[in-house]
Design brief:
globular; Lyase 2-enoyl-coa Hydratase, Chain  A, domain 2; 17% strand; 2-enoyl-CoA Hydratase, Chain A, domain 1; alpha/beta; 11 strands; 4-stranded mixed sheet; 2 domains; 12 helices; 7-stranded mixed sheet
């Protein structure tokens, strides 16, 4: 299945939903149209049993340059106040939360610059496979703004508070190898093999026990914000759910039979 929208393309094969930001001339900057389309496709991917892993990337030279400020140029030049808070609540926040809440693995294939809200989009994913040409940029401070779209949540959890402060307050651009060193990305691969590597990674996840992967993701977020006793109790509840799945029974049978399991995502 393949669907072309105005600003993105989306196709599903081998259990992987491939979502490509397709505003190449604008470095895949986020405007209202692409945000609305992302919101729609993310909901579709979450509810589609054929999608067992979602892979997000950008067309052309960049993953996403972040907010498309050119759409607000007239207002800024006139000195008008722009309601950025409302724009975040109605826009970018609507695409970050579905990625986090999706009970399936989500992988970002970062092919170039990931700046501002575009970086936050990558950070919201569960894994980031970066091209050796990728660049990460907390661009907000350069235009006198605070980081948004979840950056204040993701960055400290990925790289620690001190490094998160540095990235946010200095606004330095970091390359792929530095991103790997500080734990911002999962791995770095040669640019020309990025999509092959990212798809192989996504297909590996798609062949796994989808329900257990989704609940593992939920448990990790719960554990990040709760104490040990609460987390262990929550894990017990989730384990009770996964113990009833087909994939759990298949995994145990495969272990006993000394063979590789064939998970079906149910």
């Amino acid at each position: 299945m393949s669907v072309a929208y105005s600003s993105i393309t989306y196709e599903v094969s081998a259990g992987v939903g491939l979502l490509t930001l397709n505003r190449e001339k604008a470095l895949n900057a986020l405007d209202r149209q692409i945000t609305d389309e992302l919101h729609k496709v993310l909901a579709e991917a979450a509810g589609d049993p054929a999608v067992r892993c979602l892979l997000i990337t950008g067309a052309g030279r960049g993953f996403s340059a972040g907010a498309d400020l050119t759409q607000l140029e007239d207002s800024y030049r006139k000195g008008e106040t722009v309601p950025l808070g409302d724009m975040l609540r109605d826009g970018y926040n609507r695409i970050i939360l579905p990625i986090v809440h999706m009970e399936k693995p989500v992988v970002a294939a970062v092919n170039g610059v990931a700046a501002g809200a575009g970086a936050s989009l990558a950070l919201a994913c569960d894994f980031r496979i970066a091209s050796d040409k990728a660049r990460f940029f907390q661009a907000f401070i350069k235009v006198g703004l605070v980081q948004d779209s979840g950056a204040s949540y993701f960055l400290p959890r990925l790289v620690g508070l001190a490094k998160a402060m540095e990235l946010a307050m200095l606004g330095d651009i970091i390359d792929a190898n530095e991103a790997l060193r500080i734990g911002l990305v999962t791995k770095v691969v040669p640019h020309d093999s990025l999509m092959d590597e990212a798809r192989a990674f996504a297909e590996q996840l798609a062949s796994g026990p989808t329900r257990a992967l989704g609940l593992s993701k939920r448990a990790m977020y719960f554990g990040a914000d709760n104490d040990l006793e609460q987390t262990m109790d929550y894990e017990a509840d989730l384990q009770a759910q996964t113990s009833l799945t087909h994939d759990h029974m298949e995994g145990v049978k495969a272990f006993l039979d000394k063979r590789e399991p064939k998970f079906e995502g149910r």
